[in-house]
Amino acid sequence: MQDIRSVMYESRDAIFTFEIGDAISHLKPYVEQGVREANELMETISATISPTPIVKVTADYFGFIVLNLIKAGKGEAYCKTCKEIYYPGQLVSKPLGFGRTPFSIDIKFKQEGGFIKRIFGKKRLICGRGGEAYECPKGHELISAITWVGTLRIQK
Hints:
This protein is α+β, with helices and mostly antiparallel strands. It has one domain. Helices cover about 25% and strands about 35% of the residues. The protein has four helices and eight strands, in the order E-E-H-H-E-H-E-E-E-H-E-E. It has helices at about 20-30, 35-45, 60-70, 115-120; strands spanning about 5-10, 15-20, 55, 75-80, 85, 90-95, 125-135, 140-155. It has a five-stranded mixed sheet with strand order 3-1-2-4-5. Strands 6-7-8 form a three-stranded antiparallel sheet. A hairpin with a 4-residue loop joins strand 4 (about 75-80) and strand 5. Helix 1 packs antiparallel against helix 2 and helix 1 packs across helix 3 (about 60-70). The longest helix is centred in the N-terminal third of the chain and has 13 residues, at about 20-30. The termini are far apart.
């Protein structure tokens, strides 16, 4: 990256690097909402801005911020398998579980039973979760996270 001050986060399969300003701007809303992990991350980043050009963040919570930063087109990712650097526009987003958000669920049930049952049906509760993963252009998963968990009431 061009900016010498950056935040680095390492997952099992990749190393992500972002400009400090981008990381701080994506953390701020969570800090303002009182998210403890975001406050701790902000303190870590702020405390090491001056003495160190690269801040290595190890907190798992930053993985969620990484997803937001990639979605916003920020930073770069080094794929450990390919040994290549990729930019957000080159990464491939994949939904996990029931989808990226609880609002994008598409569950289809096979119609069973007679006419009355099809009209009135049964309501079902299912526990669902979903999230997002990013892969490099060659198909290696770089990062993934379950971002929501919930109980869904579905009319069958």
